[in-house]
Amino acid sequence: MPVGKGSQLSGDEKKNELDRLMEKLELDLAKNNLNASDRLSVIRQLKGLIISGNADSVFNQKSVGILCQHGFEVDTPASSREALKCVANILLLESKTRPMFVEFGYASKAAAKLKSNDPEDKLLSSRILFLISYDKTLDFNELFDDNDLAESINLNIAHYANYFSDSKRGDPQSSPNTMALSETLKLLFNLAQFYPSRAKAFSKSVPSILQMIGQMKSPSSPLQQPMNYLINALLNLDFDIEPSGQSTASPMFPTPDQVRQVDGLITILDSSISYYKEEQLESLATPLVTLLQKVYVVAPPSVRKHLRAKLLPSNDERAKPLGRSDTFASGLLRLSTSPVAPNLRECVSSLMFELSDQNPTTFVRNVGYGYASGFLMSHHIPSPDTSNRRNSEDVNSDGEYLGETLTRVDGQEINPITGQRKDMEPVDTGPEMTDEEKEQEAERLFVLFER
């Protein structure tokens, strides 16, 4: 989002004013004829005109160069920061200016500002680097190697974790450090996404990110920034699981309480389902559901079992068709068929399938055909056979015959379509249909199927 307040000027009048202000800044670079106060005033006026829209006259190489010089080379901190806000807004509003910034060679100066102690410097440099990360003109590998980019980001995230650990800081949502943290996390996400070979360099930040997730949990707006960016940042990072599967050293599964971190993530998801509308959950909760699936894949057996118990409907819920109760697991399951959140719908179904060890029979047993069929069909996965024919391929690692788990749970017969216990299904007390009524009903169903 652009930084600053807009202006009421428009059309030629606005263009002329933009040109006039840029000329003053250009002349100042040549003759140093503006004092610090006047320079600040001119740049602030320019910033207001840029973010109010229709500022095409500054979306060019010359204007970007002038503002970069004021931002990175003029030694007046207040006006330099305002100039960098102008640069950030221009890069945001017009993507063609991003390679212009790169051509001037200021990327390394932006990376250097990450080492500043001022939160506004960290914010602006992170935002600029984040925006130019979408442009392929710059090879960020040079910044990794020559400017300690990963280490600067890791140190900043550790600083924010320490800063927010102080309960006296007040509401973190409005803090300048929160804005700087959000921009830093967005940059980390892009770098790990676009440069996967460098993602491991950010593993140092995982404990700090998890620490802040634990500190910032809130039932009110549970996925507002920076929480959403903290969760996004984890998606591309390594949890440092040993090949042997032992995860005692992993910050995601700390000993002795290996489920503490995952329970925190589940609490956030639970609060989010209660707090947001499904349309909002589409963008906000999809990364969190994806993260939980990633966690499950690398989790040790005890944590996997815990996640299944938390995220899948329990057998106690089978007194009703699955998804009908008011539990967290049922609410999550209902999202797998949401008509307004297609990405979240897919992610929830994928999570449920993963929790079922990617076994179609276990999947249907856990959620019922009604919820499972769409996912299985769209992914071209054969639906399980509900017959009682025993097949050696239908036996799981515990020696349990999966065909029986599909129709029986805890010794109780279940309806594989709804997942409800057969003995809890409503009994039809009406009179039995006559042969003529049965024939009419069959004909009606045939017509419906034909349609």
Name the poorly predicted regions. Answer: 241-247
- Reading side by side through the largest sheet, how are the strands ordered? 1-2
Characterize the biggest β-sheet.
2 strands, antiparallel
- SSE order, as H and E? HHHHHHHHHHHHHHHHHHHHHEEH
Question: Into which percentage range does the β-strand content fall?
Answer: under 5%
Number of strands: 2
Distance between the termini: 49 Å
**Estimated helix fraction:** 55-70%
Structural class designation: mainly alpha
Please give the radius of gyration in angstroms.
29 Å
- Mean pLDDT across residues: 88
Overall 3D form: elongated
- Subunit organisation of the chains: single chain
Tell me the number of helical segments per DSSP (H or I, 4 or more residues long).
22
Tell me about this structure.
- The chain is mainly alpha-helical and 451 residues long.
- The chain has helices at 11-31, 36-51, 61-72, 77-93, 98-103, 107-113, 119-132, 141-146, 149-164, 176-194, 206-216, 227-234, 260-275, 278-284, 286-298, 301-311, 328-334, 342-355, 360-367, 369-378, 402-407, 435-450; strands at residues 408-409, 412-413.
- A two-stranded antiparallel ribbon has the order 1-2.
- A hairpin with a 2-residue loop joins strand 1 and strand 2.
- The longest helix is centred in the N-terminal third of the chain and has 21 residues, at 11-31.
- The protein is elongated and about 100 Å long.
